[in-house]
User: Fold these one by one.
Assistant:
Number 1:
Amino acid sequence: MASVEVFDPAMCCSTGVCGPSVDPALVRFAADLEWLTSQGARVARATLSQQPERFVATEPVRVALAEQGEKALPAVVVDGRLCATGRYPGRAELAWWAGLADPEAKADVDQPSAVAAHVVVPATATQLPLSPLPVADSGCCGGGSC
């Protein structure tokens, strides 16, 4: 089954779904990842503020950050391939990338207006120097514990 890795921007907790004002996109994405897991996919998340070493150790994410800076986040890697940067993809895209979607659904995922601007072809660079990534201090969500 597919392995899906999500590399989130700096947040105070692993999902960003905490505090007094929660971004509805993060709630939807968390539900989509839970659904993906229920379908048998392996899902892992890393937050820049809590696990910067994973960003450096994952070449496609390291390359995207070198080229785009923090605008590359969030980034989604499926089976080692960088599939999206700069946004949280929808359930149909996640399912397609994980090999769970009906082939007929591919037409919806391939629509330029829905995906093309955000689908990323892995960079051709083979090696970039390992350097520490800047870690933004995200504070905490609304002063509560996460």
Note: The two ends are 31 Å apart (CA to CA).
Number 2:
Amino acid sequence: MLPGIDGFYYLATVYTAHPEGLDQAHKDACAAAGQLMAAGVPIYCPIAHSHCVAMWGDLDPIDHELWMNADRPMMEAAGGLIVVKMPNWEISQGIAEERRHFTAAEKPIVFMDWEASTRTVRAESPEPLCGEKP
């Protein structure tokens, strides 16, 4: 059960540290976000919401400073943090910074178990979620 918060949860998932690469990191973030949304949990997930922006907007998807600056207002607005315990979550620079932010703000942090077998979109999917650039 999640602690009650005002507004939405910020959903932290692995990106650059994902063992299967950035596209699979995006797919897994979308799958986790979908599971929570289907359960009625209001979330904002920076990876699910920004990966395609990086691809189509010709932005560096691994420019940590750029993305943390973009995500900071969402962290400030969020009522709490959900960290998905995907492989390598413990070594993720972004998740570490997100946890520091929410700890300093004294907002609740909860952890979501993750098993690759629960993914709804597999790495072998023929189409990337962002589509092909022309």
Note: The beta strands are 9-12, 43-44, 80-85, 109-113.
Number 3:
Amino acid sequence: MPPRYREWLNFVFDRPTTPEAWYFDLDSGEFDAEPVELADLIATTFEQGGRDLAPYSDEQIRYGLSYILENGCSDTVYALKSDDVPLALRLRAIRSLDKLYADVFQHRCAPVLGHLSQSGGNALNDSCYMLWDASSLAYWGSTSNGHVFYDAIAEVMHHALQSSNPACVESGLHGLGHIHAYQPERVEQIIDAFVRNGVARDPALRDYAHAARTGSVL
């Protein structure tokens, strides 16, 4: 366990929930850590999320995930794009998103679809559906080893398609749609298998899968 893991959890998640997210308060600051430590903290948080995020409300987790993953909320996510961080650790942190889906989103998101604005969702539904829109992890551009990172996030999205919660499946399709421009063959392969194997029994998800296959997602 990273030495400052509990301090990190308290800083990121143990916050009051207000209409204005805590990280937009100029007095809140950022967690003071070097990229290597941040990458390790991110990976551990997602790997242990089913247990260690359980005490927090959906709203607290939503804001915490935004702080970690959204570059509009903090610079934290850039630790996973820093060449100062060993490749293996960066990939570990990205692959740990599998556990975020399986141990947090799967159990805590309502089984509703964001792209149809279905009612009954909770704060975590927004985080799940918009994860790949809001985070720069869906774009690697000319980053060194960019293809390796695209492969890693494609696998995370692929695994999300196996979830029994349609909110997770939708999130995986959403992400695949966004990386289609950079990994068209891989995206089409994953989605074709998804449709062919009959996983997409919900007509709405099947239609969304066809849209994602051409990068036509919102």
Note: The chain has one domain: 5-213.
